Amino acid sequence: MKKILVFASGEGSNFEAIVHYFKDKNVQVELLCDKKYAKVLKRAKNLGISSHFVEFENTYEFLKNNKFDLYVLAGYMRILPQEVLNLGTFVNIHPSLLPKFKGKNAIKRAFLSGEKETGVSIHYVIKEVDSGEIIAQQKCKIETFMTLFELEEKIHKMEHKLYPKVIEELL
Ligand code: GAR
């Protein structure tokens, strides 16, 4: 049985997609969240998944005592220091075609930039934000008639499909 730890800070829709995907697949999913009132904690509870509220400063200590095969960042809005990254393999998902639009509000910035396409990137985590080696990318057209909300929905659907498959391959 493989074990993965999903890191999330907010909404948790990717976390939920990952939990559903691995439900009958001999992979144990747990959650680490750094925000006490994040919606993702409620999702974990409803899904019957073990969750760990770990303040950012205590991440190293927690991972020293709790080992997983893969660490999966999904909307975890913190920059992990090198000493934490040294403890295992960390991957992240980002809603743009990296190296374009690193950082926050990537979908909105791509939408407003006039780009004809954007997408989703999954990459290994290094200490520079949204910058490690890319594992998988998927493109998405920005149609002229699309609203920002529609583009966001499309990107999130792509994330929910792509991320679990990439995680499975990595395991
Ligand atoms: C996702 O779109 C993810 O790609 C993005 O945060 C969202 C989290 O949504 N991550 C980043 O922007 C990382 N720089 P979720 O909480 O519903 O999974």
Automatic annotation (TrEMBL):
<dbReference type="GO" id="GO:0005829">
    <property type="term" value="C:cytosol"/>
</dbReference>
<comment type="pathway">
    <text>Purine metabolism; IMP biosynthesis via de novo pathway; N(2)-formyl-N(1)-(5-phospho-D-ribosyl)glycinamide from N(1)-(5-phospho-D-ribosyl)glycinamide (10-formyl THF route): step 1/1.</text>
</comment>
<dbReference type="InterPro" id="IPR001555">
    <property type="entry name" value="GART_AS"/>
</dbReference>
<protein>
    <recommendedName>
        <fullName>phosphoribosylglycinamide formyltransferase 1</fullName>
        <ecNumber>2.1.2.2</ecNumber>
    </recommendedName>
</protein>
<keyword id="KW-0808">Transferase</keyword>
<feature type="domain" description="Formyl transferase N-terminal">
    <location>
        <begin position="2"/>
        <end position="167"/>
    </location>
</feature>
<dbReference type="InterPro" id="IPR002376">
    <property type="entry name" value="Formyl_transf_N"/>
</dbReference>
<dbReference type="GO" id="GO:0004644">
    <property type="term" value="F:phosphoribosylglycinamide formyltransferase activity"/>
</dbReference>
<dbReference type="InterPro" id="IPR036477">
    <property type="entry name" value="Formyl_transf_N_sf"/>
</dbReference>
<dbReference type="GO" id="GO:0006189">
    <property type="term" value="P:'de novo' IMP biosynthetic process"/>
</dbReference>
<dbReference type="Pfam" id="PF00551">
    <property type="entry name" value="Formyl_trans_N"/>
</dbReference>
<keyword id="KW-0658">Purine biosynthesis</keyword>
<comment type="similarity">
    <text>Belongs to the GART family.</text>
</comment>
<dbReference type="InterPro" id="IPR004607">
    <property type="entry name" value="GART"/>
</dbReference>
